[in-house]
């Protein structure tokens, strides 16, 4: 019975796991049903295709009527109504500005999208960010994200979210943390100097920005670089009603300290400055200029601006305001002159230029023909020159600011790059100027690049999967790009030619030149060239270009600027922005259009070298209200962003594609052959599944790793079948869950009974152990009390325990060597046994030790024992000789051949260098003492000076000090011997030991403390006196004694 229950429990668990793994959506539904997590339902609706009637499809490619603009906008409206602001067109992300915080940008959301496949989760800006980041790391190819849209569509916020995602999810160190902070802090600085309040957006970017974020091999941000395009400099001097100048002017006036404003000559009132009141909107309720000023100042510090640089930058900002307040009037002779001297004084101080020179530059112009001629400016010309100077100063200061930020972000080593392009979308206003022309020309180039790269990526995917590529028909806007940039015949070439021709350039002559050159072009229309109906919509000073996104009328106009005086500025920033060569050179500068065309060409080249991703931003209404969807405005943006063209290109082939594992995992429950698990090849499993579902051959293709479905209807039919299948799956899930729950309940009850019995058994065992322990303790205590009595039942346990403990201690810790005298104290009853054991142990260790001794070592030890017997506690130098080994000879191979021949069969057993002292005069002479088995000889220069037979050697005398003297006593009546021999040697212990051993005179070694008497002739004696001193000295005394002084190391 238990086995069958366990088997049932395991089978129920396996069914649950299989269902949860195969159908993640079922696990969410079940969780919502069981635990009441209502917020999960919204996620299920987003993650499945079955809720498309309410929330729309999350990929426009799945629209059935994909050619209908109305169906496209209706899908956007449905999703916007459900607060789903992100939708895909394939890999392109379409973002609708919600104008409120949706709380979908937390760190938890970042983690949700981190490392997840692009289509496995609902569309989000984080999905694009993560997909781009992972592609950069895995494919080792630079990436870029192109963000476009109208002002107020959320481009700047999108780029912020991308940077925040990388800053939060990428690995980081202390140094990288600094770079990360600088990357993030560059946003408020650039927004302050490059953003402004417009009718459409309170924080509208008035410049295009391309930022490269550099990553190291670990994927950590290590640097960056920013390129800026087309700053709206005209905003410096003019704003439309309801708009403001750049934020930095208002921030400085509202947030700057009073001392700082006084130094700059400014007042805390924006109404007093001509350049700040033209839009009649100095204050905005949604903008806190004072708080933003603190943010900007902090950001400048984080980025690495020095105080001097910040001061120079603020001087330039203040000088622009003073320029705006510089007024002109007519003098007595009708010449134009400056009427506001105070502002001119501040201008010369803040810009670091000469006051009279600045006055001359603002009221006169220089003409260079056959020499240099200065002519006065009219009132209108002076005002225009002042405004042009203000725009030039601010524009170049902004360029310097971007370069300074790039300096702080610079990284020179090798790195991978993700680029962020935040630039204007296609713009059409009631009056479109040169700036709108540049913006729309940029969008034409980007659209051309987008279509080209989209088709390229589609073709590469088809070829990689082995699917036949079908050519796609699409509108190629190259004809419009050529109309603008073609050499000698394009719009920009004509503009350059008109600006460079002699005389004063005229707007009308430029328009006529356009009509003559471009008159027959299908995408160019003027009032003169248009037919009757179109002529009414085109003004006489306008021309119309038919862009890919629609028709736009442009007004022809131009502007000039005089910047010569600024080249002499002492302001460090201006001196870097304006170069003296610009004034002195005779070469005509490039026109703004040519400069923009060249910079745009470089941008396209940069983008072409990277793998692109796209974010298209749409604003739902002009009133910046959340929840309001203006269909006409959205249709206008869909058209000008080219989204329908993008969708048509994407749908030209197959609408839906998924990897085999994802497709099979989702739909395998629809086929008995693939349910619950497919064991074979994934491709075979998908083929089995689609055959069971009845797919027709023209509806799908099987690639190498993906299935391609041509029509959304086929996918929706499959989704509907899955939705119909889900109740049965849910019933199986609920049945399995209930069975699992009941079986688990039974097992809990059964386990509780078993556990109760087990706990009882454990408690009984524990009680028995405790009783046994108590008995042992009682016996032990009683035995301890009777320990001194004879053995009896009361103490026998204690005495046995004592003996056992003693023997076990002896077994565990026996003596380690013959020198180890440790031995445990035995109990009284084992004293005799302990002595026997100790003796046996020592004998055993000594026997084992002796067996291990080598012959050479044995001989050495025997000699050391003799030395110990003779010298221990007798001679001071003995302790130092104990650790030194005795050697076989101190002479090595220095024996003379003659000496060897003289000795004959007597082998030299030991030799040492000694010093012999004469009997008369004690003259020291070097000798060699050689010991054989029967005699000792003194040798000098291969001659045997004296032979001493061991039988004739009476005794050996040495002192008790550390000197090396020894006296060999021989019989004075022996004619063969001269007299006693006085020798001195560095190894006296070794020499005496070996000599005493060989001569068997161990008992004939005398150790004297004060003096040694020795015979010098028959009946005559001499004395060697020994004394202690700091060092060894040998000298002849007054009484004819030999005096030896030696240091006493071990005084006794």
SSE topology:
Blueprint: H1 2-22, H2 24-35, H3 39-47, H4 52-55, H5 69-81, E1 86-89, E2 92-96, H6 107-113, H7 125-139, E3 143-149, H8 155-169, H9 174-194, E4 195-196, E5 204-205, E6 208-215, E7 221-229, H10 247-255, H11 258-264, H12 289-303, H13 307-324, E8 328-330, E9 336-338, H14 341-351, H15 355-363, E10 364-369, E11 371-376, H16 379-409, E12 416-424, H17 434-465, H18 478-485, H19 491-500, H20 507-518, E13 524-526, H21 532-535, E14 542-547, E15 550-555, H22 572-577, H23 581-584, H24 592-608, E16 611-618, H25 631-640, H26 643-650, E17 656-659, H27 660-667, H28 682-693, E18 700-702, E19 706-709, H29 712-785, H30 796-812, H31 831-852, H32 855-871, H33 878-881, H34 897-903, E20 910-917, E21 924-931, E22 935-940, E23 943-949, E24 955-959, E25 965-969, E26 981-984, H35 988-998, E27 1005-1008, E28 1011-1017, E29 1020-1028, E30 1033-1036, E31 1042-1046
Parallel strand pairs: 2-16, 3-12, 3-16, 24-27, 29-31
Antiparallel strand pairs: 1-2, 4-5, 6-7, 6-12, 8-9, 10-11, 13-14, 14-15, 17-19, 18-19, 20-21, 20-26, 21-22, 22-23, 24-25, 25-26, 28-29, 30-31
Helix pairs in contact: 1-2, 1-29, 2-3, 5-25, 7-8, 8-9, 9-10, 9-12, 9-16, 10-12, 13-14, 13-16, 17-18, 17-24, 19-20, 27-28, 29-30, 32-35
Protein name: Myosin Ic, paralog a
Domain Myosin motor: 56-723
Family: Belongs to the TRAFAC class myosin-kinesin ATPase superfamily. Myosin family.
């Amino acid at each position: 019975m238990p086995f069958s229950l366990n088997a049932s429990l395991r089978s129920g668990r396996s069914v649950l796991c299989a269902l949860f793994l195969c159908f993640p959506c079922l696990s969410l539904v079940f969780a919502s049903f069981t635990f009441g997590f209502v917020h999960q339902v919204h996620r299920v609706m987003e993650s499945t295709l079955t809720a498309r009637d309410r929330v729309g499809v999350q990929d426009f490619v799945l629209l059935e009527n994909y050619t209908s603009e109305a169906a496209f906008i209706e899908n956007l409206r449905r999703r916007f109504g459900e607060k789903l602001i992100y939708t895909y067109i394939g890999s392109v992300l379409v973002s609708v500005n919600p104008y409120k915080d949706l709380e979908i940008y937390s760190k938890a959301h970042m983690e949700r999208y981190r490392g997840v496949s692009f289509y496995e989760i609902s569309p989000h800006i984080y999905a694009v960010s993560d997909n781009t980041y992972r592609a950069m790391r895995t494919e080792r190819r630079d990436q870029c994200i192109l963000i476009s849209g109208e002002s107020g569509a959320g481009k700047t916020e999108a780029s912020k979210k991308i940077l925040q995602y990388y800053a939060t999810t990428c690995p980081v160190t202390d140094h990288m943390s600094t770079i990360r902070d600088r990357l993030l802090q560059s946003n408020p600085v650039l927004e302050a100097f490059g953003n402004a309040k417009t009718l459409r957006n309170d924080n509208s970017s008035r410049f295009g920005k391309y930022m490269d974020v550099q990553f190291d091999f670990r994927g950590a941000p290590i640097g960056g670089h920013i390129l800026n395009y087309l700053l709206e400099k005209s905003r410096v001097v003019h704003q439309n009603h309801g708009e403001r100048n750049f934020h930095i002017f208002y921030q400085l006036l509202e947030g700057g300290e009073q001392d700082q404003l006084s130094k700059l000559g400014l007042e805390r009132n924006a109404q007093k400055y001509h350049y700040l009141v033209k839009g009649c909107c100095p204050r905005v309720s949604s903008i806190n200029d004072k708080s933003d000023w603190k943010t900007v100042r902090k950001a400048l510090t984080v980025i690495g601006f020095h105080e001097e640089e910040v001061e120079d930058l603020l001087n330039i900002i203040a000088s622009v305001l003073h320029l705006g307040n510089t007024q002109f009037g007519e003098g007595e002779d009708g010449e134009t002159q400056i009427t506001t001297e105070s502002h001119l004084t501040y201008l010369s101080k803040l810009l670091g230029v000469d006051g009279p020179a600045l006055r001359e530059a603002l009221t006169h112009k220089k003409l260079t023909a056959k020499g240099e001629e200065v002519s006065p400016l009219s009132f209108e010309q002076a005002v225009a020159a002042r405004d042009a100077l203000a725009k030039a100063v601010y524009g170049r200061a902004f360029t310097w600011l971007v370069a300074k930020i790039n300096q702080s972000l610079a990284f020179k080593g090798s790195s991978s790059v993700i680029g962020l392009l935040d630039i204007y979308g296609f713009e059409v206003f009631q009056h479109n100027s040169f700036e709108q022309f540049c913006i729309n020309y940029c969008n034409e180039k980007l659209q051309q690049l987008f279509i080209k790269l989209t088709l390229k990526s589609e073709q590469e995917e088809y070829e990689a999967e082995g699917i036949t590529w079908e050519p796609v028909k699409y509108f190629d806007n190259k004809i419009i790009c050529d109309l603008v940039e073609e050499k000698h015949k394009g719009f920009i070439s004509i503009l350059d030619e008109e600006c460079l021709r002699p005389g004063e350039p005229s707007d009308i002559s430029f328009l006529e030149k356009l009509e003559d050159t471009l008159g027959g072009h299908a995408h160019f229309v003027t009032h003169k060239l248009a037919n009757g109906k179109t002529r009414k919509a085109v003004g006489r000073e306008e021309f119309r270009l038919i862009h890919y996104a629609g028709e736009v009328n442009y007004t022809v106009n131009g502007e000039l600027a005089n910047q010569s005086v600024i080249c002499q500025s002492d302001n460090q920033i201006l001196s870097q922005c304006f170069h003296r060569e610009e004034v002195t050179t005779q070469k005509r500068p490039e026109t703004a259009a040519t400069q923009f065309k060249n910079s745009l060409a470089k941008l396209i080249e940069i983008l072409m070298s990277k793998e692109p991703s796209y974010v298209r931003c749409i604003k739902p209404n002009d009133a910046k209200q959340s929840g309001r969807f203006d269909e006409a405005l959205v249709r206008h943006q869909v058209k000008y962003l080219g989204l329908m063209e993008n969708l048509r290109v994407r749908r030209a082939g197959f609408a839906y594609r998924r990897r085999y594992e994802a497709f099979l995992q989702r739909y395998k429950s629809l086929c008995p052959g693939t349910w619950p698990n497919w064991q074979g090849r994934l491709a075979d499993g998908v083929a089995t599944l689609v055959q069971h579902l009845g797919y027709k051959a023209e509806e799908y293709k099987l690639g190498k790793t993906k299935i391609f479905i041509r029509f959304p209807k086929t996918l929706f039919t499959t989704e509907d079948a899955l939705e119909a299948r889900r109740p049965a799956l849910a019933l199986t899930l609920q049945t399995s869950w209930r069975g699992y729950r009941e079986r688990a309940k039974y097992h809990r009850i059964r386990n509780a009974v078993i556990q109760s019995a087990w706990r009882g058994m454990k408690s009984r065992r524990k009680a028995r152990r405790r009783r046994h322990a108590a008995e042992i303790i009682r016996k032990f205590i009683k035995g301890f009390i009777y320990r001194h009595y004879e053995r009896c039942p009361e103490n026998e346990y204690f005495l046995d325990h004592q003996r056992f403990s003693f023997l076990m201690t002896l077994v565990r810790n026996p003596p380690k060597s013959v020198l180890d005298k440790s031995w445990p104290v035995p109990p009284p009853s084992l004293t005799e046994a302990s002595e026997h054991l100790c003796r046996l142990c020592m004998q055993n260790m000594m026997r084992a030790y002796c067996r291990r001794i080598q012959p050479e070592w044995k001989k050495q030890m025997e000699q050391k024992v003799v030395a110990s017997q003779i010298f221990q506690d007798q001679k001071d130098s003995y302790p130092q000789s104990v650790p030194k080994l005795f050697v076989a000879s101190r002479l090595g191979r220095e024996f003379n051949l003659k000496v060897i021949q003289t000795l004959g069969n007597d082998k030299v057993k030991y030799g040492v260098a000694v010093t012999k002292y004469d009997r008369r005069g004690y003259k020291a002479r070097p000798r060699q003492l050689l010991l054989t088995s029967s005699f000792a000889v003194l040798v000098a220069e291969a001659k045997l000076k004296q032979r001493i037979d061991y039988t004739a050697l009476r005794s050996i005398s040495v002192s008790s000090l550390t000197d090396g003297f020894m006296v060999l006593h021989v019989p004075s009546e022996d004619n063969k011997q001269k007299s006693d021999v006085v020798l001195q040697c560095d190894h006296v212990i070794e020499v005496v030991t070996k000599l005493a051993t060989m001569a068997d005179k161990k008992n004939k070694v005398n150790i004297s403390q004060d003096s040694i008497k020795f015979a010098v002739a028959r009946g005559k004696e001499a004395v060697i006196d020994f004394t202690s001193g700091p060092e060894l000295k040998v000298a002849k005394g007054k009484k004819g004694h030999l005096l030896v002084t030696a240091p006493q190391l071990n005084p006794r």
